[in-house]
Amino acid sequence: MKRIVLLDILRGFAIVGTLGTNIWIFAYLGDLNLVFGNALEPWWSSGDRLLQTIMLILVNGKFLGMLTLLFGAGMELKRQKAARDGYTWPGVYIWSCALLLLDGLLHYLFVMEYDVLMSYAVTGMIVSLIIHRSRRFMLIMMGIAGSIHVIGVTGITALLALEPGSTFNGMDMITRLYASGTWQEQVMFRLSNFGFFRAESIAIIPLNVFLFLLGSLLMRTGVFSSDGPGRLKRRKLMIIGLGAGIPLNLLLLVPGGMMDIWVRYISAPVLTLGYVGIIAMIMEKGKIPGLLRRFGEIGRMALSCYILQNIIASVLFYGWGFGLGGRPSSIFILLMWLGICLMLMLFSHFWLRKYKLGPVEWLWRKLSISPAPGSKSQETSI
């Protein structure tokens, strides 16, 4: 199946963009009070805090939304391939989701407690049972999932409004562990607090279902195609996404952090559509082709780079590594983010000069052959 260059580039942006949010969690040793809704240090209190807020307005939730959207688009491509090749759907795709669930569990335990792969795996199993149905049925399920998500997030936001200045509890214990604890102690901490740290992954499943299905429908309607109609559709998407998304994401400036959750989980996915259109337009105009190729290479090794960037950030900021975490300046955090991005570009570029697949992608292809009898030819990957 021929690769769609735009999807690889978008996926590359999505990978490094998610790090643009997560890097603050690593740098602050897991203290979410310093990342979101810091009532003691509002965005206007210092230039350092203002820089952090601007960065979060640009990236927080937007590239995670893009990655989720692209998972849905990728699933649609696999469904179409299964239909062409005469395979039963979802068939082997369920096995791929099971592998992703295992991968996410290992990543959660050994690398990062806010891993999203387990949530994607469960969502993939759900959406794979919907995606081959009619467009009308898909739209109905999108409406149900979207409504559940909006009602839930709006309810939480209303509760936060009733308790201005509320904080995340237990952050001091987490920061002490990540500042001075061993890697083994952190692993055991994640294991013993599995339910607490996995609550977000469960809560975002309705949003994931909505975005998976949206990505599938966008793929079906030719939004990612290189022809004229595809470009026109992306322009419309960009106008809608930017027009609605920019003012919605500026709600992050509301004092006390009461709108932070609403912005991350509702406003951000809207702006994601605008980002898709902007990146596509840059590619179409032939701007910065070399840089876009580097992002495309990261996109071709998305799973490898996603895991690697979190490992690198852990080594840089946690006490068992270089111990750079705590309260570093925003400029320092951004420089670390840019440095990791450069490392990913160099790694993926030189790896793909010698190999066709990233290391995790290669292993994935080997393992994702369905264990069902007679299905060895049905290789697939997430």
UniProtKB/TrEMBL annotation:
InterPro entries found in the cross-reference section: Bact_Transport_Assoc, DUF418
Keyword Membrane: yes
Protein name, as recorded: DUF418 domain-containing protein
Species the sequence originates in: Paenibacillus silvae
Keywords: Membrane, Transmembrane, Transmembrane helix
Transmembrane segments: 12-30, 50-71, 92-110, 116-132, 139-162, 196-217, 237-256, 262-282, 303-325, 331-352
Record keyword Membrane present: yes
Sequence ranges assigned to domain DUF418 in this UniProt record: 218-368
Pfam families: DUF418 (PF04235)
